[in-house]
Amino acid sequence: MTTTPTTTPMTTPTTTTTPTGIPATLQLGGLTLQSPFLLAPLEGVSDAGFRRLCFEQGAGLTWTEMIRARGLAKRNKSTLDLVDTFDADVPTGIQLLTTAPNELLDALGVIEDLAATTHPHFKNICAVDLNFGCPSKDIVQIGAGPAMLKRRGRMQSILQALATWKTTTTLPVKAVSCKLRLGMNAREAEHQVFLPIVEAASGVGLDFITIHARHAGMRSRDPAVWSAIGAAKRVSSIPVIGNGDVTCRADAERLRQQSGCDGFLIARAAINSPFVFRELRGRGSLLPTVDEVQRERTRYEETAEALQTKEKYRIAHADGFARLLRIARGEVGGAVMVPKNSHM
Ligand SMILES: Cc1cc2nc3c(=O)[nH]c(=O)nc-3n(C[C@H](O)[C@H](O)[C@H](O)COP(=O)(O)O)c2cc1C
Questions:
Q1: Positions of the chain with pLDDT lower than 50, given as ranges
Q2: In the prediction, which pLDDT does 18 show?
Q3: What is the structure's pLDDT at 332?
């Protein structure tokens, strides 16, 4: 666990493309990813052990769960603990929630300070993403998350602050980005309030943008609006990562065909089976064997023990492995792992 992710800041890599048109690798700023499939930021799920498993199965980049910039800026211990970037072999970015440029810069300054002193594992952060998608009541009530989309001046200054910070930071951060929903509600989504933010992100020099193709009023079972990812792609001069309802290779191919997106962010399908990443890359089944589940469960538990991973993650993954084991043993149908959506 000592190397840093492969980076090529100055050169343009040769892009190999699979027969179906999905690139095998993906360049995001100075990061060369070995896969265009990214593990989503997942609260209560994306801890270090789970990120390693997803990476080994074929995720090109992984994220911590959302971390509040305010808590970091105040050096709140439980907030700092969320930056569990101990594993230098696994390309990992942190995702921050903020409503103000100064707060963001204070938070990033704390990370730089601690990386140089007591928390050297902060040096493993290779990307920073800003969350403008979380629809939780407590988030939108403070004007954060998708409530920020209509505060264009404020958004512009936050995005600019992040892009400028990247050029001067002492951390080895190679890519900065933001993750957007389509708006607060159907009306905002219809008015495409997210598009000026896509343009602003491109304009200030972010390296890529992720579109979660739902507005904040939509439930996760409502089909993602993939045409919005295509709309973002048309106005963006930086790579666009499509998110929403990608559960298998065939979904990714359809989303790529419909939107032209450059990469894919995978959330619930990875919770259902971290082995989905090998299926997405055309290298195996998302249904693991009994031996595979047992081996990965043991490895996860050993990592969690060594890193003193919080109980909330361990409980979530114990449930997940137990469910995968029942499926692998044929006690329940494997079809439960592939949620139906309207893109079939
Ligand atoms: C359990 C869970 C936790 C999540 N936590 C975060 C988070 O911390 N930050 C974030 O931007 N999105 C979070 N999301 C949203 C996902 O990253 C993703 O945008 C959404 O689930 C749509 O993707 P999917 O259709 O592949 O599931 C979370 C989703 C789930 C199901």
A1: 1-15, 338-344
A2: 54
A3: 86
Which of 89-115 are b and which e, b meaning 16 or more Cβ less than 10 Å from the residue's Cβ?
ebbbbbbbbbbbbebbbbbbebbbebb
Q: How many helices (H) and strands (E) does the chain have?
A: 14, 10
pTM of the predicted protein model: 0.93
Distance CA 178, CA 241 (A): 10
Q: What is the largest CA-CA distance in the chain?
A: 55
CA of 264 to the centre of ligand 1 (A): 13
User: What does the domain layout of the chain look like in residue ranges?
Assistant: 35-286, 290-328
Say how many CA atoms lie within 13 Å of 31 toward its Cβ: 30
Check if CATH label 3.20.20.70 holds for domain 35-286. yes
Of the candidates 211, 215, 213, the one whose C-alpha atom is nearest the C-alpha of residue 226 is 213
CB of 242 within 6 A of ligand 1: the answer is no
Of ligand 1's listed atoms, the one at least distance from the Cα of 212 is 19
- Phi–psi pair at 27, nearest 5 degrees: -95, 120
